[in-house]
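Hi W.,

Here's what went into the run:
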Amino acid sequence: MTARVGVVTFPGSLDDGDARRAVRLAGGEPVALWHRDTDLHQVDAVVLPGGFSYGDYLRCGAIARFSPIMENIIAGAREGMPVLGICNGFQILCESHLLPGALTRNDHLHFVCRDQKLRIENAGTAWTSDYEAGQEITVPLKNGEGGYVADERTLDELEAEGRVVARYLELNPNGSRRDIAGISNAAGNVVGLMPHPEHAVEPLTGPTTEGLGFFTSILKRLVTAR
Amino acid sequence: MARVVVDVMLKPEILDPQGQAVQRALPRLGFEGITDVRQGKRFELELDGPADEAALARIREAAETFLANTVIEDFTVRVES
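Here's what came out:
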């Protein structure tokens, strides 16, 4: 018995293929979801992949957030369905108000593409339970608008409630407030992450295989829940 | 027929690295005396009817939900004659 994890393809998505591959390597059944569809095809969880949905027009994620498929994803997420947004997916989750704050242009204005060291701060979310709190991992990071911003009260709340899921180590690559690389909602089922764990799941193509934990975490949770 | 303009600007407390880059380039081009630049967006909306209070209320709703991200941006709505 395995679990079905949907991966949405928007016009301009780039990392949907790698996300489906990561789900499969973790032992799950990847299900391709189309942005114009409204049917979630009985998936147990959803990944919103990286890329440049709708050309990043207006704001990153702003148009994707109103895609037909998003209505059911937003409703499902509010009822506890696990959702992981990576990079552009993180931007879509913020635009959907499933996560607080926003992602803004990198403070140095350059597109950044590097292998980035992170610390998993919260190993209690649906997507990080296969890590230890405090574990350091290295996965690719590639973004132009990855600077996480929120007002001080929201940042304090995220810290106090343990909702900072991952933090940049050694170098803050984009000016994110408090070195934040990823956050979760209060329930822990919705996680947004700027770096790309789906690109670090195989020795041939990734700097490490340390990204796989996000996908094995959700698989274990879904299979145990049955 | 009427034209309504929606201006969207980053909130003052949000860093605007694009505006800063423009500001730094100005003196190099000989434009002195400009101490700060903030960059924003301007939307020109053509209406099929008059810009009455009902139409403006809908445009404010569109600006609030879509044209601006009010977490980081402010907007203004005005009728252009």
